[in-house]
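Technical appendix A lists one of the benchmark inputs used to test multi-chain prediction within the project. The record comprises two sequence entries:
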Amino acid sequence: MSESALDAVITALRRLPGVGVKSAQRMAFHLLQHDRDGAEQLSVALQRALSAIRNCARCQTFTEDEVCRTCLDPARDASLLCVVESPADQAALERSGGYRGLYFVLMGRLSPLDGMGARDIGLQQLLARAAEPAVSEVILATSFTAEGDITAHVIADTLRSRGIRSTRLARGVPVGSELEHVDAGTIAHALHDRR
Amino acid sequence: MSESALDAVITALRRLPGVGVKSAQRMAFHLLQHDRDGAEQLSVALQRALSAIRNCARCQTFTEDEVCRTCLDPARDASLLCVVESPADQAALERSGGYRGLYFVLMGRLSPLDGMGARDIGLQQLLARAAEPAVSEVILATSFTAEGDITAHVIADTLRSRGIRSTRLARGVPVGSELEHVDAGTIAHALHDRR
């Protein structure tokens, strides 16, 4: 059995989130025995992304330019600034078709256990961005998880101390749900926020 | 949001076994935002493995040489040839400390649904290897799954037609198990093969 080159692949694969040693072994075996084209494709794609992808100077999302296309789009409503955790969350909002404003992407969330603090989510940059005269409303669209809620809370407090008001996405019953299958916390929030 | 370079990474990650689109997005985000060293390490390790790793000319396992160290080891018992599915299975047998013979690694198993046939597992090479005068026993150590059993069955039949006998690893109750937690099929086999 080869050691160094194979073990190096397994070690590198284990750095992927959610990949343990057994998964890494299976992935390495698959790539090197059954999908060498895939291994080449992954290696090249990573190199290309490392040199091409950076963070947008205005909103922090992934981009291959100085400023991303969304931030540069004159058709977007510059009075709305929506704060999300990740490019994936941003994409989910775009798919909803219900938002035409701009974004600020935290590229993470506050998580002391993972070492993610105010600096890591770009809180200062967000404050500067939210204080621009064009912005009339900041919408906090972090996840409705413990860490996402805390992140939204800290951002809302900090903005308020600068006299900037923010709103939060509504909590409630997901469209298409039957009530009996919705968890109690969601129903409690939907009751409290009834309109 | 960047499209091409980021999407290329996500597409490449989806070729890994067990990785769907959500996992691939999470992995790409992690690598490009929080672990660029890890992305570089993975890319380089894959390139190195692609150029360094090949299949042993004698046993088919991964090696960086023409013939692997195990096949070249004069201390191994050349009269025993153990047939396993993968380098990981070979490593498991090595860890057991109970085997000092040589190996033939199928690098897969018969699986018509996945397009794995006799040629893909190197059945002809195995026949030639098992027919060498030094080999007195072929031990079939494929998995005790449906596909592993069928693979062992086909190999045993083919070897028998050439007058070569083979044995199969014993089925039975795993060491350290309490009987009440062992599945019925295993107990039935352990009863049948009692000694």
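Chain B has a mean pLDDT of 92. The beta strands of chain B are 54-55, 62-63, 77-84, 101-105, 137-140, 166-168. Comparable benchmark entries are summarised in Table A2.
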